[in-house]
Specification:
Order of helices and strands: HHHHHHEEEHHHHEHHHH
Helix content: 55-70%
Number of strands: 4
Strand order of the largest sheet: 1-4
Distance between the termini: 79 Å
Shape: globular
Largest sheet: 2 strands, antiparallel
Length: 379
């Protein structure tokens, strides 16, 4: 289905994948193999911070796949990210067992506090890691399928589709804030202890989670790249650029959109699942529409329709956010809005698109040779 003639990995992708593999090896080596007083040592909080950046990069990659190549601007991808995070958080909560504040082996602490007598059916099976991983894919995937099936078959497009996706994530925000939903209410899920039997706070576990995040991002890039360079990807681009014409020549546009939307949602869910054990908490705030809008800004800054640019945009913008919220926290939202305006007006192709244009322009510029100096006349 995804077969095509274009090579899978170009020079830019090869560099990106190489950096991810190097990071997956180097960061744990510096965190675990160097003494604490060494200049090369990476403290645990930096390892977790870098891992969080990679999770955001995976979310941006998922959004770029559906927006940059299929033209579907989703303002609700934060919902898929959060659902994957809740699936992982529920597994981590079940691993606490009797080590919670109330020492109840069958119920999480917040359920004991609320006088719940038994585990809700939505939590069944989450003591099993394979079941939790299945839900990481199924929860966002099923939601994306149901939403996409209704929206795309109704031919909802453009700004109307974007508004509906934003309404979807806001509805989930309100639902998860309620304590009677069984997901921790406004406090969410936290105080995690173990993942697969390993202490989630240990330096070795944090380093392993970082490496898994880097390799997962690399795998997601390869999957997305395989899609966009194939015949399937050519149809995606045709839908983005001329949807009516693509439908007129016989393609079932809604089926292509639906498949890409579901795959993108599952990628976002995996990003959320990797995010939760590294930050140590998941709450309804992850459903906030502002988070989804911020992800769109990451893609726009890095370069829409480039995959690599989307990931780099997420990493660079979040690095800037870390600095701003530490040095000038009250100005971060203004800086983010200004950044989006500047990119929209002056860098419509993003940073990576600008770099590509400059490279092509330099390659087309003819080399100017210095004029030959005439030999001095002889008498």
């Amino acid at each position: 289905m995804f077969a095509g003639g274009t090579k899978l990995i170009d020079a830019r992708g090869a560099v990106f994948l190489s950096l991810l593999v190097i990071a997956a090896i180097l960061v744990p080596a510096l965190a675990l193999g160097t003494p604490a007083g060494s200049r090369l040592h990476l403290p645990a909080y930096l390892v977790a911070l870098f891992g969080k950046y990679l999770c955001f990069a995976l979310l941006a990659l998922a959004l770029d796949l559906v927006w940059g190549y299929c033209g579907v601007l989703s303002l609700g991808h934060g919902a898929f990210f959060a659902l994957g995070g809740y699936a992982m958080g529920m597994y981590l909560m079940r691993q606490i067992g009797s080590r919670g504040v109330y020492a109840n082996p069958n119920l999480p602490d917040f359920m004991v506090f609320l006088n719940w007598k038994e585990l809700p059916w939505t939590w069944w099976g989450f003591s099993s890691f394979p079941w939790a991983m299945l839900m990481v894919f199924l929860a966002p995937g099923v939601l994306a399928f149901c939403f996409g099936w209704l929206a795309f078959r109704s031919r909802v497009t453009g700004v109307y589709l974007s508004i509906i996706t934003q309404a979807m994530t806001y509805a989930l925000l309100l639902a998860f804030f309620r304590n009677d939903m069984g997901f921790g209410g406004n406090n969410g899920l936290t105080d995690f202890k173990d993942i697969l039997g390993f202490n989630v706070q240990a330096d070795a576990t944090r380093s392993a989670l970082f490496s898994v995040s880097a390799l997962t991002l690399a795998g997601a890039y390869l999957l997305a790249r395989a899609m966009v360079v194939s015949k399937f990807g050519k149809v995606m681009i045709a839908i983005r650029d001329a949807e009516s014409r693509t439908r007129f020549i016989g393609y079932r546009v809604e089926n292509y959109k639906l498949l890409v939307f579901v795959i993108s949602a599952m990628m976002a869910g995996v990003a959320g699942a990797l995010y939760v054990p590294q930050v140590g908490i998941i709450n309804p705030g992850e459903f906030a529409p502002a988070n989804s809008i911020e992800a769109v800004i990451w893609v726009a800054v890095g370069g829409r329709g480039t995959l690599v640019g989307a990931a780099l945009g997420a990493i660079s913008v979040n690095f800037a956010k870390t600095w701003f919220t530490g040095a000038l926290p009250e100005f971060w939202l203004f800086a983010l809005g200004l950044l989006f305006i500047l990119v929209t007006l002056f860098l419509p192709k993003g940073i990576l698109g600008l770099a590509g244009d400059l490279t092509r322009r330099r390659a087309k510029t003819p080399e100017v040779k210095p004029a030959a100096v005439p030999a001095p006349a002889t008498e």
